[in-house]
Design brief:
The complex is a heterodimer of chains A (about 130) and B (about 575). With about 130 residues, chain A is α/β, with parallel strands linked by helices. Chain A has one domain: Response regulator (Rossmann fold, 3-Layer(aba) Sandwich). Chain A has helices at about 15-25, 35-45, 60-70, 85-95, 110-125, and strands at about 5-10, 30-35, 50-55, 75-80, 100-105. In chain A, strands 2-1-3-4-5 form a five-stranded parallel β-sheet, with helices on both faces. The model of chain A has no long low-confidence stretch (mean pLDDT about 90). Chain B is α+β, with helices and mostly antiparallel strands and about 575 residues long. Among the domains of chain B are: about 80-290, PAS domain (Beta-Lactamase); about 420-565, Histidine kinase-like ATPase, C-terminal domain (Heat Shock Protein 90), CATH 3.30.565. In chain B, the strands form four sheets. In chain B, strands 1, 2, 3, 4, 5 and 6 form a six-stranded antiparallel β-sheet that branches. In chain B, strand 9 and strand 10 (about 280-285) form a beta hairpin. In chain B, helix 9 packs antiparallel against helix 10. Chain B is rod-shaped. The two termini of chain B are about 65 Å apart. Classes of the chains: A alpha/beta (about 130), B alpha+beta (about 575). Chains A and B meet through helix 1 of A and helix 9 and helix 10 of B.
């Protein structure tokens, strides 16, 4: 598997750290952010190629963060993550340039497929 | 104090109670019955009262009209008889003035006078001269041997001495046929008095009565003051018998009364009294004959009344049927609309609740999922250790349960979703075949035969492909779950009407009770051990959103049929 940087953004610490660990076990390069502001700082510093971003977070929400990420680097591929099935958010996210939309709880294999697709798309856009 | 009559008798409340539809099963029948009774009473009662008033008024005026000519006839006949008797009386008076006692005491002269009277005037039988003091018959001309007979003790002699004239009641003479005696007293200047007396047969009375031209069932007769027949009666008796009718034998007017004959038949009696002598002329007319026209008219009126009443009753029955059926229909529609609204409201609130619950559960579920996943990863990447397989089995159990929870929450979220409808033109038959392609493997596995009766002329419809797929998947999956191995599913399509297509999905599975049928579109109602109770409510919601309708018919152990109606042109 090609080495690419992944950023996981979710306010649920238990979830995000565990998911990060699972991806790391699979030799993936993963960073973690617990809120939107931290996520944007990491984006600016580390320039991850694929971001898994929770929609509902306190402070800056996922869609606001997505907008800002896209303004930093429009090629960064963002997979939106949601605890509820509001298609509205999904459609809005896709319109803002999100790559895909997943509903919690996620299947690790499905996530890995999406991450690879995101990475491939990132590569194609360069 | 100022309470109106309506308040006092509580009419409003009584009427309200009478026309209250209520909520029992037979409420419409009771309502229908009350309305019928009320309308029939309100229409037939005034009609009957009017008919009765008219009946009696008309009968009264008709009786009056019928009896007036009878009164005239009775009066006319009475006048004629009176005139006849007075004429005889005048004749006797004239004879007493024209001839002296000596002349009249001459038998030849007396016989000559009797002869002239018999010849020129009818009814005279005999003629006699009686001494006013002794009462001895001085001279007699006639068929009997009455010469020398003394009348001094007889009442008629005393009466003629008192009044100067006398007309007797009818009596049986020596030859046993009815007579009337007429007598006149004459005073001479010398102080001597004598009486001239004659007997008249009553044939002339019969003639007068005969001249009244009575009908077959009519009768007329003369009574004296004691109510004894002076002439024969057809119905009530012969001459000199007592009349059984109670008739007042004094008075000056002409009277009408109603009575009954001896057979109990109704009769009219018209009668009038003579001024002199004390006779009463009676005319009896049969009710049935007199009122023949009335009876004919009465029958016609009765028939008209009955026909009108029957027509009113039929009209009331038909109208109340139409009216109550409309009310029933309107109530049912309102109830259905209310139920549908309630159902939508329920779906909507459950949807909102489901979305909230799903979101709250999904986050901790995601943590469990990841923690268990990490454990699985760690165990998988480790070498063998004691109970590794057992640990792995436990973790897989946790993950399986998480997956099950995820399926439920995803369904709940799907239920709550208000997806935008994407309308496109769809060949519904093709869509069915497409959906069946997903299910072929399972059908094969369960040995289920799927028959398609798809209409070749089915028009294309404007609808949402994705949502219709979900609808068909839900229903066909349910059908497959309901049937045992070797069952069959029949899918039919046809054009229901100009605006709607219909598809029916029929299975020969276990079927459902009526109770279950009513509840299957309710959220969380399920008969399956692992069901969420959301499949059919979602299906229902989608079809309603697409402007269609869904119905189900089912019988236990016979199977179920779902009918889906979809508009050809989209309403969205």
């Amino acid at each position: 598997m090609d080495e690419f940087k992944i950023l996981l953004v979710d306010d649920e610490q238990e979830f995000v750290t565990t998911l990060a660990e699972r991806l790391e076990i699979r030799n993936m390069n993963v960073s973690v952010a617990m809120n939107g502001e931290t996520a944007l700082r990491i984006v600016e510093q580390e320039l991850p190629q694929v971001i898994v971003l929770d929609v509902m977070m306190p402070g800056l929400n996922g869609l606001d963060v997505l907008e800002k990420i896209k303004s930093i680097d429009p090629n960064i591929q963002v997979i939106l993550l949601s605890g509820h099935g509001s298609t509205k958010d999904g459609i809005r996210g896709l319109k803002l340039g999100a790559f895909d939309f997943l509903i919690k709880p996620i299947d690790i294999d499905e996530l890995i497929i999406k991450l690879n697709e995101g990475w491939k798309k990132y590569c194609d856009s360069h | 104090m100022n309470k109106s009559i309506i308040d006092i008798f509580n009419v409003k409340n009584h009427l309200q109670r009478l026309f209250e539809i209520g909520s029992s099963v037979s409420r419409y029948d009771r309502f229908r019955r009350n309305i019928r009774i009320m309308i029939i009473a309100l229409t037939l009662l005034p009609l009957t009262v009017m008919a009765l008033i008219n009946y009696y008024q008309f009968l009264k005026s008709l009786k009056h009209e019928i009896m007036t000519p009878e009164k005239v006839l009775v009066n006319k006949t009475r006048h004629s008889i009176e005139f006849y008797l007075k004429e005889r009386l005048s004749l006797l008076k004239s004879i007493s003035h024209m001839y002296s006692y000596e002349e009249l005491a001459d038998i030849n002269r007396l016989s000559r006078i009797l002869y002239v009277l018999k010849k020129e005037f009818s009814g005279f039988v005999d003629l006699g001269i009686i001494d006013g003091n002794s009462g001895n018959q001085l001279c007699y001309s006639g068929p009997y041997n009455l010469q020398g007979k003394n009348y001094a003790d007889q009442s008629w002699f005393q009466e003629v001495n008192l009044n100067g004239t006398y007309i007797s009641d009818v009596f049986m003479g020596h030859r046993k046929f009815p007579h009337i005696a007429i007598a006149v007293q004459h005073f001479e200047r010398k102080g001597r008095s004598w009486v001239i007396r004659t007997t008249i047969n009553t044939k002339m009375l019969d003639n007068f009565i005969g001249a009244m031209q009575l009908g077959e069932k009519d009768d007329a007769f003369i009574l004296n003051q004691k109510g004894v027949f002076q002439t024969n009666s057809r119905m009530f008796g012969d001459v000199l018998e007592e009349c059984p009718l109670k008739i007042m034998t004094t008075g000056h007017a002409t009277y009408i009364l109603e009575s009954q004959d001896k057979y109990g038949n109704d009769i009219f009696i018209a009668y009038t009294h003579f001024s002199y002598p004390d006779y009463t002329l009676v005319l009896v007319k049969s009710h049935a004959v007199a009122l023949r026209t009335w009876f004919a008219l009465k029958s016609e009126l009765l028939v008209i009344f009955l026909i009108a009443s029957v027509l009113i009753v039929i009209a009331v029955f038909q109208l109340t049927n139409v009216m109550v059926n409309r009310i029933k229909e309107a109530d049912q529609n309102r109830e259905m609309a209310f139920r549908e609204l309630e159902h939508h409201r329920k779906l909507s609130s459950i949807g909102r609740l489901a979305a909230g619950v799903a979101h709250e559960i999904n986050n901790p579920m995601a943590i469990i999922n990841e923690k268990a996943g990490l454990m699985k990863d760690l165990i998988a990447f480790q070498g063998d250790f004691k109970n590794k397989d057992k640990f792995m089995a436990q973790i897989l159990g946790i993950l399986k349960s998480v997956k099950r929870c995820r399926d439920i929450t995803h369904r709940l979220l799907g239920f709550a979703k208000r997806m935008d409808v994407q309308i496109e033109t769809i060949d519904f038959n093709e869509l069915i075949e497409e959906v069946l392609s997903f299910l072929e493997r399972e059908a094969l596995y369960k040995n289920i035969e799927i028959q398609l009766n798809l209409s070749e002329t089915l028009p294309k419809i404007d609808s949402d492909r994705g949502q219709l797929q979900q609808v068909l998947l839900n229903i066909i999956n349910n059908a497959m779950a309901a049937i045992d191995d070797g069952g069959a599913i029949v899918i039919t399509t046809h054009e229901h009407d100009e605006e709607t297509v219909c598809t029916s999905i029929q299975d020969n599975g276990c079927g459902m009770s009526e109770e279950t049928c009513r509840k299957i579109f309710e959220p969380f109602f399920t008969k399956k051990a692992t069901g969420t109770g959301l499949g059919l409510p979602i299906t229902y919601g989608i079809i309603k959103k697409l402007g269609g309708n869904i119905e189900v018919k089912s019988e236990i152990n016979e199977g179920s049929t779902f009918f889906i109606y979809l508009p050809i042109k989209s309403t969205n």
